[in-house]
Every structure is written in structure tokens, then in C-alpha cells.
User: Fold this.
Amino acid sequence: MSAEIEALEELAPLHNQPAISVIQATRAKFDPGVPQVTVFDTVFHRSIPKYARLYAIPLHLSERHKIRRYGFHGISHQYMMMRYAQVTHSPHSAINIITLHLKSGCSATAIGAGKSQDTSMSFTPLEGLVMGKRSGDIDRAIIGYLTRKEQASVSEISDWLNKKSGLLGLSGVSPDIRVLMEEFDKNERVQLAI
Assistant:
């Protein structure tokens, strides 16, 4: 299983390698016969309809490279839907809500009839809302522009967008909103970030 997760590393660079490390550490610590179960953050979003999951790029490229909106934070969004059903005594099929996952990684999901219909995090966790270290949505032309202007590789730019942007990049202080709130009155960049 870890080989399959490793093959998807470029889609979730902040998550897959730590998950692989846990799988390997568990295998080393326990009898290899002990079963391990992997729960993917994207499963809840399998119900996103085709018109919402496809990007408007040539279809043969989407099909060849499996480019689509996968969605992330599915475990969290599904839990919020299930908890809402419990609190309101509603069947899942009657639930039409928008859920927000607001932590260091942030996402929004539209849920219709208890199923994911669309989500802000898509092909990778980079897309969508501004997050602790991730930029969220940007004009894709910025990547080529920065490649030329900064003489940077695509890998460097990916690192900037995934690990050095968002609240951290704007504030220059921290990706943690709690830290930023403490600095709010003292720092204009922190105010900008918030």
C-alpha cells in the first residue's frame, strides 16, 4: 500500500510522506501480519458529479493523467454532515449544507442530499481557500511568470506555494492564526494576512 501512496506524492506533498512514515514505523514495530487500514481523505468526494469534477482542459489530457477534482478533508466534511444529521434528526438524503474545514488547511464543501457535490480543494490540496502555508487559488500564469522573473524551477515555485505562502507568506510571522491574533495590533503584515 505504501508504494501506491508514494506514487501519489506529488498530489499531496505535505501528507503522503508522513503517512508512509507511519505505515513503515508500524510495520517495523508490530508483526507484519497485523492488518493496516488506510482511510483516504478523498473518498467522500467521489460523488462529485462529472460536470463539477472535470477541469476545462482537453479531455484526453484529463483522462490520460487522471486530472480531476479529487477533493480533500473528506473525512472532516463527512463527519460534519453526519453530525448535522444527528443534531437535526435529519436523514442524510435530506441534508443540503455547506461545510467549512478551517484549520491550517482550509476547504469548503457543498453537500447535497448528503453527498459531496463540489469542493474547494481539488486536484491537490493547494487549490481553494488561503491556508496556513498554502496559497490557495492563484492565477496559474503566475507560475510561468515567477519561473521567468525569479529564474526558479517549477519545484521551487511548488514549494513556495505549498509551504511558504498563505498566512505565513502574507504575515511573515506564522501560519498559526492564534499566533497572528496575538501580533495583530503590532504588525501591519499580520493585519493584512488576517
Notes: The chain has three domains: 1-38, 41-128, 130-194.
